[in-house]
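Blinded run. Sample ID left blank on purpose so nobody reads anything into the name before looking at the predicted structure. Input follows.
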Amino acid sequence: MNGSKVPKLADIIEPTQFVEVYGKLSAGDYVGKLVPSLGMLIEHELFNPQVLVSDEFLDTNTFLSITYFNSISEPLKLVNEGLKVIREAPIALSLTQEMGFGKTHFLTLLWHLYAQTYRWRIDQLEKFNIELRKLNYDRNVAERTLVFAIDLSKYPLELKPYEAMFEISARILERKSEFHGIKILDPKFLKNLSKLRPVEAAKTLISNLINLKESIPILVIVDELYDGVRSTIGGGAYERIESLKDLILFLKELLE
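Blinded prediction complete.
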């Protein structure tokens, strides 16, 4: 380049005040505010509204507006189609990409579409209604879906992982039943499953679902599995380690 010096990016672009502030933030300052945290969203929605989460992650319409569907159309379509039919073998998506590839964003999208249906109606989604239908999303299926969701890096401190998963599912079910007028299972039944050993709990749940007149889809959303295992074992609390093992055993038995 005729000996000319290649300019640095900082010499060409002046960072905004937002960039300067963002650069000084710790993870605790921006998780749930600038990037989604499924655990904080669940805690805010079902346990403690004082937990601070940005509106763009709380409001379904706003969250869909910041979602780039082209990049997630295939996995989302796979989930949507998979929940329409009861299968012998479950459909499993293992999201193992590096940090920043949108794993939590995708799981948060599933939360909005299948867990938090009591917060919105399909005609309120404006242009996204058409987009979702192209991806085979069925609102009626979503309303009937039994959702187990947990972020293993962030759940209510007063609960251990195994009981937290059932408590979260029961609270979703309570809100769905009230809003949609659909009786799927008794939320108290779900809560009481946490008192059973994991294999027995899974078999009891499956037995009850089989006896229902209408088939009920099940969606399991687990975020930060590796981090949850690492931090729980690293923390050394025996009860929490055993509870995490119970949670994993329950899901294994349920999915098999």
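Unblinding after everyone has recorded impressions. The chain is about 55% helix and 5% strand.
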